[in-house]
Amino acid sequence: MALRSESVMLATLGGQPQVITFALDALLAQGENIVEVVILHLAPSDPRTRRALERLGQEFLGDFYGPARRAIRLRRVMLRNGLEPLVDITDERAASALREQLREIVQAEKAQGRTLHLVLTGGRRLLALTLVPLAILYLDYSDRIWHLYTPREMQAKVRDGRRMHVGPEAGVRLIQVHLPRWGVDFPALRWLATTRMAPTEDPDGLRRCDEVWAQLTEAQRQVLRGIAQGLTPTEVAERLGRSPKTVNSHLERIRELCRNAWEIPPDRPLSYHHLRDWFRSFPPILRRTAPEGIGKTSDADGKFS
Predict the structure, then answer these.
(1) Do 78 and 85 form a contact (C-beta atoms < 8 A)?
(2) pLDDT tens sequence across 168-183
(3) Which helix (DSSP H) or strand (DSSP E) does residue 200 occupy?
(4) Residue closest to 21 by CA, chosen among 4, 7, 9, 31
(5) Packing angle, helices 47-59 and 18-29, rounded to 10
(6) 8 A C-beta contact, residue 7 and residue 116
(7) pLDDT tens-digit series, residues 38-61
(8) Torsion of Cα atoms, 107 then 110 then 111 then 113, to 10°
(9) pTM for this model (two decimals)
């Protein structure tokens, strides 16, 4: 049987690590070629979350999974509220930050061109509720959305990772959740969702960009230049040789200035996608953009040319 194309399992995690391994085992049993597991979780200040992460780390030692030592990478994504770890989702501002970050994660995963298996079982219920509309917008018909069913009589036996793997007799199984794929059927919806705040026809756009640019340090301009050229914050950090924390700090300052320039209320999300749309045609950035492609560098410091 031919090996299926590479796919990624994207799952939410709370305090029950077995949710991840049960779902992964079920997908592998179906013949899915999972090469990476991405888990979305709140800050591990909660002891249960911290223990769940540690338990999962034991299952993926050296990027090899389980007793069979199958090559599968585990990637942990801690959700944030701005620059701060997201401890809990307690108000609309935290929910807005969560929405924007999850959207960026889903878009980045889809940009890899791999099939996505979205498992909506672990963690806070609002995580799953936030991911559902994103799945409708950004997933295509090759992707799958799953709920993990564990029989009630098994839940106490496996709780808190007491058992990380079970046989078919346990009755644990994946149930596919069928949702529309409006982003596939109506591509304009994706465009509207991404650029809903980008004033592409704003007659004052150049003035606003100038206002922000004049207040930036050279390091902040380097970050904005990379974003405007189409890079993600992680790629900007790698290209500039800076830490992700440093790049995020610069982005926070850029967002603050843009909120002032465009008069954006603090409760409305503002992502790096908006910065890209506003500044990609900004003359000072165009003059420094390499004609043969994104992110060309001309010096040892990795500054964008």
Answers:
(1) yes
(2) 999 999 999 999 999 8
(3) none
(4) 9
(5) 30
(6) yes
(7) 999 999 988 999 999 999 999 999
(8) 180
(9) 0.66
